[in-house]
Specification:
Strand order of the largest sheet: 1-2-3
Distance between the termini: 35 Å
CATH topology of the domain at 7-52: Double Stranded RNA Binding Domain
Radius of gyration: 13 Å
CATH class of the domain at 7-52: Alpha Beta
Largest sheet: 3 strands, antiparallel
Strand content: 15-25%
Length: 69
């Protein structure tokens, strides 16, 4: 099992999310609950597609750090 960083951003119409470790994998949702479900489904679908096409599964390489000002 791999742990991928997910970035969630508030938008004018809801939320968007992506993983910097998985190029091209994004999701949107109207609520916080919906975006969590949608990005997890998008990651699973994206990785399954890569595997079916014979592409390597990307290794997680990003991390989070907060800087307090």
């Amino acid at each position: 099992m791999k742990n991928y960083l997910i970035v969630i951003e508030k938008t004018n119409t809801g939320y968007s999310a992506y993983s910097p470790d998985i190029d091209g994998c994004i999701a949107t949702g109207s609520t916080k609950e919906e975006i969590h479900v949608n990005i997890h489904e998008a990651i699973e679908f994206h990785l399954e597609g890569l595997q079916l096409e014979g592409y390597p599964i990307p290794e997680p390489h990003t991390y989070i750090e907060y800087y307090q000002v």
